[in-house]
Amino acid sequence: MDLLEYQGKQLFGRHGLAVSDGKPVTTVEDAVAAANEIGYPVVVKAQVLIGGRGKAGGVKLAANEDEAREHASNILGLDIKGHITRTVWIEHASDIDTEYYASILLDRSAKKPLLMFSIEGGVEIETVAEETPEKLIKHHIDPLVGLTREEAIKVATDGKAADDVIEGVADALVALYEVWIEEDASLAEINPLIVTPDRKVKALDAKVTLDGNAAFRHPDHAELGDSANADPIEVKAAEQGVTYVKLDGDIGILGNGAGLVMSTLDVVAQHGGTPANFLDAGGGSDAAKVKQAVELILANENVKAVLFNIFGGITRCDEVANGLIAAFEDLKPSVPFVVRLDGTNDVQGREILEQAALPNVYAAKTMDGAAEQVVALAKGA
Amino acid sequence: MSILIDENTKLAVAGITGREGSFHTLNNRNYGTNVVGGINPKKAGSDVEGIPVFADWKTTVAETGANTAMIFVPPPFAAQSALEAAQAGVELVVIITEGIPAHDELKLYNQVKRDHPGTRIIGPNCPGLLSPGKANVGIIPASFFKPGNVGVVSRSGTLTYQIGNELAQKGFGNSSIVGIGGDPVPGSSFVDIIELFEQDDQTELIVMSGEIGGSAEEEAAEYIAAHVSKPVVGYIAGFTAPEGKQMGHAGAIVSGSAGTAKAKAEALEAKGVRVGRTPTQTAEIAMEILGSPTAA
């Protein structure tokens, strides 16, 4: 789960990493009140989960109440690449001497946390990595030990942080690791990590991704993220314990198992179709769950045809067939379905479907054949 | 031969008394796998259809000589159970559980590597392993597979069945099928399993089925070029996956330009590994390379 900047900063603050005082608000009046309370100049920042906020006009400096009001009313409701700004973060504007960069992520290849630090902050770190890789320090942390202060000092020193802020940078890195490990983050990034004229080290931005699998030990994480901008079908699916990802096309997809569903999307695309969603009904899906999944797929109005691609292991094909029949009784879908059933109880499943003789349901023998047929049906619709 | 599991496997199961755990354990036993025990601290002394239940891994290993562990316990406790199996000296620990926090996997991997180098972990979030005709550890529906000369290693369960089924329709069987799982920190990688298939007499061709996210497929490409004499056929799922969206598996996510299916397929092809664009085509390439299926 990706956090909004202010949520990340609040986590940072809780773990002793310096951030500016600020307040998240959702109305112009609250924005003005917050700005007056914090003291000018303030920065008004759009809280959306997408880069390029500054260029889109989502980050503005306000020197007084009139400017705060003007910027807040312009930014609240602003559409930044499809993300509607519902919240702005008002913080006291910082004086900046230097901009550094720091992040910790899970290096899947090394199977260790990777700490990165650079004195080239405030720019795309990918650019630094490509053009001046010597300026990006990479340090693997032993997760059984943690990040020691000595290690952090060495990273700051190797990265050529200014002499008088080595200690301050090291403290920030240690705190950043504490955020990463204690909050079950997969990414914790500060860009820029600033040095102020009075030589304080502070996080001016925050990019944090939390591991949803660890939610059970972080009840406080439940309110985080950008639920206001989440797709309503994805939210409903999550509540039902089904993995659904909305896509841009018109062919609804249901399969069992993440890999098989991904593969199904690819095969549909190879036949010239465009998938409307990724939906993994999971292992052991019973009829009720299948029916719910059909409801999710049809909730997307773009869907012109639906493909069921099931290879039953734990999942029983007869259950899937019964779920489809139940869904048809209740929902009476107007779009055609192509159904491919293989694996556990496939013979029974196919028989059940044949006897039910549902209108507009076509049985397919292979995955390729099913994809071809559903693409043709979607185009004909 | 086969790899990792066979007639000598002595399986014990943590979470044997749960609904899924007992169902699949009995399935594995019915297949012929030697299931010697199970673990549930609250039900020690009881049995599951004749399989004795012990309080912990140490007792289980001492009483039964179990050499293979299967972990079916819920996500909050799974990594700890796997670690205790390693501490008890179990050589192969197969974690089926889905939804384990990535940091738990990270610590488990590093701790086992440091303190218990003799233990190999498969998974988490994997379907387990099958050596057709010999042993089944996990949830792979064994009836679709027969013994043969193709080794399969995959990040996805059902996709493995799909590819295995395509191979079976062409008459091929398998030496072993290994699901390494779809999580960010798998205990075993493609490289680890391909290394075993390379040494295995029964295996004449290796199929590796990858997907978006991470760089395990790219690392396998390098390894294959340097160390593998047997033909390898690849498949990668997720060409149509958008950036930044997790496609079901916790590890299946494209971040920026990293981890795309295209980059993975190209990395493999650059090292001479042919990559099928569909499961069907993957089986066809295997057929082209091996000619006709030969009995193992």
Description:
The complex is a heterodimer of chains A (381) and B (296). Chain A is an alpha+beta fold. Chain A folds into three domains: 21-92, 2-Layer Sandwich (Dna Ligase, domain 1); 98-221, ATP-grasp fold, B domain (D-amino Acid Aminotransferase, Chain A, domain 1), CATH 3.30.470.20; 231-378, 3-Layer(aba) Sandwich (Rossmann fold), CATH 3.40.50. Helices cover 37% and strands 25% of the residues of chain A. Chain A starts with a helix and ends with a helix. The model of chain A has no long low-confidence stretch (mean pLDDT 94). Chain B is α/β, with parallel strands linked by helices and 296 residues long. In chain B, 35% of the residues lie in helices and 22% in strands. Chain B contains nine helices and 14 strands. In chain B, helix 3 packs parallel to helix 4, helix 5 (157-169) packs across helix 9 (279-290) and helix 7 (216-227) runs parallel beside helix 8. Chain B starts with 9 loop residues before the first strand and ends in a 6-residue tail after the last helix. The mean pLDDT of chain B is 94. The interface between A and B is large, with 52 and 62 residues. Chain A: It is an enzyme of class 6 (ligase). Chain A: It comes from Patulibacter brassicae. Chain A: Pathway: Carbohydrate metabolism; tricarboxylic acid cycle; succinate from succinyl-CoA (ligase route): step 1/1. Chain A: Substrate binds at residues 256, 313-315. Chain A: GO terms for molecular function: succinate-CoA ligase (ADP-forming) activity.
